[in-house]
Amino acid sequence: MLFPAISGGRFWFKKPTFVAAGIQLEFPDNNQARKLLQTITTIPERKRTGWLLESANVDVVVLPEYSLDGEPTESLKEWCRTNQKFLIVGGKQPLGDTNYYNTAFVISTNGEVVFRQVKSVPIQFFKDGLPAPEQKVWDSPWGKIGICICYDLSYTGVTDALVRQGSQMLIVPTMDVADWGPHQHELHARIAPVRAAEYGIPIFRVASSGISQGVDRSGGVQASAPFPGEGEAIFFGARIGEKGSVPPDRLLARLCVFITGLFVLRPFAVTLYRKKLVKA
Q1: d(Cα 96, Cα 71) in Å, to the nearest integer?
Q2: pLDDT surpasses 70 at 124
């Protein structure tokens, strides 16, 4: 939540416990990604506003879905060791000769892959890998962070499972191809604020060509990067606190379906009862 206080005519915000940065990249080569990563190891002064007013250090850098055509390279691992940054990057985990898992890899400051999450709901009619065999929460140094990939955020069956495991924040590497146009990007950007407000946890969503978003736990967009925006950077400060909660409408929806079913079946039951009375 946001707690402003007036001091000397300026607004001050409670300092975030976690700062993330992201770069919008669409199918970059390794050199392009490495070069742009060097530009976001710290927060530029022009970006230090609002929640980031007193922050300079970046804890985690996020690159979009499909930033890599395979698993993390030694070059990226070396970058993490040199700059002492965690990196979450979208890539592919090979599965046999022809299949793969669309995966978000977490590389630690030691240059090791310490966590990975596969996309749970690959896009229909696309070559988007196989569905995730399981979902887990990353037990990060800042708290429990759930990672879902792009389309996953649209499915409560995916995000509810992460929240039930104790997620205090969601990070969402996303591929929204520039050719899909502004309407698709604007429509997709409506999902993250709704999910954040539903669960009461912050969400950091980094899209390949926009619209990237840093959303607070009340659903307010605190940071964004535009479409089209190849190479644009986004910085987001979050307060990772209490774990999220699944909204009650999940159970209420089932109850409503049950009650509706009773109303639908009632006429058939009455008809059968009357026929039995006539025969009697």
Answers
A1: 14
A2: yes
